[in-house]
Design a protein that fits this description.
It contains six helices and two strands, in the order βααβαααα. The protein is 49% helix and 5% strand.
């Protein structure tokens, strides 16, 4: 029986491995108590969380973020604090016209699976880069 995957109790990132583990909820609370005078706004984020639950290194970095006010840290953690259950479900339905348009671009009669894998991956990676740039612009606004 293998070890169960662990996810960040704040943002849901995971599964956490050695490099992405920040520590436990208890350790995060201790950081807030020791370095941030037990700030109630930050401690409230951990209300109802189990002390043994894990916090990812990204959320822990927000807690320790130098030159940031308590309000900024609290806002950043609250933005990260979205449970998987609250995340909107992906719409996997694709209109027939859109399917045909995509199929026309990626189809390859020379491929054993019927699509050009390199071209398909280039399209996907390019779209992810576009999304990343748009997200960065939105983050700068807030």
């Amino acid at each position: 029986m293998g070890k169960e995957n662990r996810y960040c109790v704040i943002c849901g990132d995971g599964p956490l491995n050695f490099s992405s583990r920040g520590g436990s909820v208890k350790a995060a609370k201790n950081l807030i108590a020791g370095k941030l005078n037990s700030n109630p706004k930050l401690l409230a984020i951990f209300e109802g969380k189990n002390d043994d639950d894990e916090v990812c290194s990204n959320c822990q970095a927000v807690i320790l973020k130098k030159n940031s006010s308590i309000e900024e840290r609290t806002e950043l953690l609250n933005r990260r604090n979205v449970s998987v259950g609250e995340t909107p479900q992906m719409n996997l339905e694709v209109d027939d016209d859109k399917k045909a348009e995509i199929a026309k671009v990626i189809t390859s009669p020379d491929s054993p699976v019927g699509i050009d894998a390199k071209k398909t991956h280039i399209i996907i990676i390019n779209k992810l880069v576009e999304i990343e740039k748009r997200l960065a612009k939105l983050e700068k606004l807030h």
